[in-house]
Design a protein that fits this description.
It is built from 18 helices and 16 strands. It is an alpha/beta fold and 525 residues long. The strands form 4 sheets. Strands 1-2-3-4-5-6-7-8 form an 8-stranded parallel barrel, surrounded by 8 helices. Helix 1 packs across helix 2 and helix 5 runs parallel beside helix 7.
Length: 525
């Protein structure tokens, strides 16, 4: 079995994605996670391109890594410079990494139009840039930029660039689909042809502009490539890079290559979400293997089947990649779905129980009104317990009032909320202000309840979403409010629906509090 090398470029190519920016501390933390995942090489950035990358290479030297090798990235020298006087090559030397990835031009279009030099001169740049780094004890990976487009335009010249890199001492030659428009059958043919001419081990670096980056990477490996480059979650410039969050499990579970250990593979989802969090991106719910929906089942027939045997609708066991099976509740649900969901909540509810039929009818009625419980499992567990008579409310609403006042045109509005609730026989009346009406309502509710339930101080409101349900009614439309809350242990979603946005917000906020108290009750039993 060939040993497949995982080369991660999240910190360089991934950081070029729109709306993504890593701090130095972020890059260090991501590098440590990638090392734990089993990446063989981690491309840290382009030293000399910006102060952040310079600092990263200084700091990462002090961080012990289990197996990953840090790689500095840069280009071949400028035509007007000698290697020893070229700023890019000097910056690569100053990064003090053993491994360097150097990219050069393989497409005649880029040589003549972008660089404005002769084809012969470009071959010189490739050769002496690699030779210079090799003479200074660097291991060099050569990235043949735009290789597939270049090969289709002029195969003889594109191949000549690879042979020149190989003769100069490159340890790996990486075939790059830089514009991301090459099809898998083209990749298969070209890689096979290159492998017959080039003796240096090959790699693949694919972009995703035609939604083919993962497929292209895997077909290249099938043709003998030993190094695959990509990013976690496929982030990167334009449409992104080859997604290592899919490539790694495909290699391990479908192609039996196992570039990482099974223990490392079980942390894949964790690493995927960690990178998304530091990149300030919302995780892609529908992403294969690691997304929340990857093993989520909604249709009643599907749920009934996976409860009997998960293999009926799951191609792998979710835990292998650190994910989990989810049984969704919606108006598509049947009695088996509800019974399965009850098991998740540690509630005994048989299919033939009359309460199951009542719950199913209630659920379908509420979803017809606009409620959605797929992202609000906190509210659904409360609903289930209410219908079967196993929920005791922590408080009762007596009433609330929200005032939004704008005193001057150039000042921000002031939001104030008044809440009156009943806990046992005691009525609490509290007032609070907030940055908006929902924030004020949240503060007032907590002030009223925290003296009875101090643990409510642990709750943080993590996300707030509003969806207009019937836009044809304009401002009189019903709205659905989804709230995500969390504490130091877990996160949960709650929902509210009303023609009045504050009423919908109240429902979701109240459910969030009730779920917290329910969670506390479970943990003490």
């Amino acid at each position: 079995m060939r040993a497949i090398e995982i080369y991660d470029t999240t910190l360089r190519d991934g950081a070029q994605a729109e709306d993504v920016s890593f701090s130095v501390e972020d890059k260090i933390r991501v590098a440590q996670k990638l090392d734990e995942l089993g990446a063989h090489y981690i491309e840290g950035g382009w030293p000399g391109a910006n102060p952040k990358d310079v600092e990263f290479f200084q700091v990462i030297k002090t961080m012990p890594l289990k197996q990953a090798k840090i790689v500095a990235f840069g280009s071949t020298r400028r035509a007007s410079n000698s290697p020893k006087n070229d700023p890019t090559l000097r910056s690569l030397m100053d990064a003090h990494t053993r491994y360097v990835t150097l990219f050069g031009k393989s497409w005649t279009l880029h040589v003549t139009d972008a660089l404005g030099i002769s084809l012969k001169k470009n071959l010189e740049l490739i050769e002496d840039s690699i030779a210079f780094l090799k003479a200074h004890n660097r291991q060099v990976f050569y990235d043949a930029e735009h290789f597939f487009d270049g090969y289709k335009a002029d195969p003889q010249y594109a191949l000549a660039t690879l042979l020149k890199a190989g003769s100069a001492g490159a340890e790996r030659i990486i075939l790059c689909d830089t514009n991301g428009g090459t099809m898998p059958w083209e990749i298969k043919r070209i890689v096979a042809e290159v492998a017959r001419e080039v003796t240096v081990p090959l790699g693949i670096h694919a972009h995703n502009d035609a939604e083919m980056a993962v497929a292209n990477s895997l077909i290249a490996i099938e043709q003998g490539v030993i190094q695959v480059q990509g990013t976690i979650n496929g982030i990167g410039e334009r449409c992104g890079n080859a997604n290592l969050s899919s490539i790694i499990p495909n290699l391990s579970l479908k192609m039996k290559q196992e570039p990482v250990t099974r223990e490392q593979l079980s942390h894949l989802r964790e690493v995927s979400h960690f990178v998304a969090e530091l990149a300030n991106l919302v995780p892609n719910t529908h992403q294969p293997y690691v997304g929340d929906s990857a093993f989520a089942h909604k249709g009643g027939v599907h749920i009934d089947a996976v409860r009997k045997n998960p293999m009926t609708y799951e191609h792998i066991a979710p835990k292998v990649v650190g994910n989990r099976q989810r049984l969704l509740v919606s108006d598509h649900a049947g009695k088996s779905s509800l019974a399965g969901k009850a098991e998740e909540f540690h509630i005994r509810l048989r299919k033939n129980n009359p309460k199951t039929k009542e719950l199913l009818a209630t659920l379908k009625d509420l979803e017809n009104q606009g409620y959605q419980f797929e992202g609000a499992e906190g509210s659904f567990e409360l609903l289930m317990r209410k219908v079967i008579g196993k929920h005791k409310p922590s408080f009762e609403l007596v009433g609330f009032r929200v005032i939004v006042e704008k005193r001057h045109a150039d000042e921000e509005p002031i939001s104030e909320a008044t809440v009156m609730v009943k806990v046992g026989t005691i009525i609490e009346h509290r007032v609070a202000v907030g940055t908006g009406p929902v924030d004020a309502l949240d503060h007032a509710l907590r002030k009223a309840l925290e003296k009875f339930y101090p643990e409510l101080r642990e709750i943080k409101l993590l996300d707030y979403k509003v969806r207009v349900l019937a836009a044809n009614k304009g401002t009189a439309s019903r709205v659905r409010v989804l709230i995500e809350s969390g504490d130091h242990k877990e996160k949960w979603g709650t929902v509210g629906v009303s023609a009045n946005i504050m009423e919908a917000s109240w429902q979701a906020l109240a459910d969030s509090i009730e779920y917290k108290m329910l969670s506390k009750s479970r943990s003490t039993h």
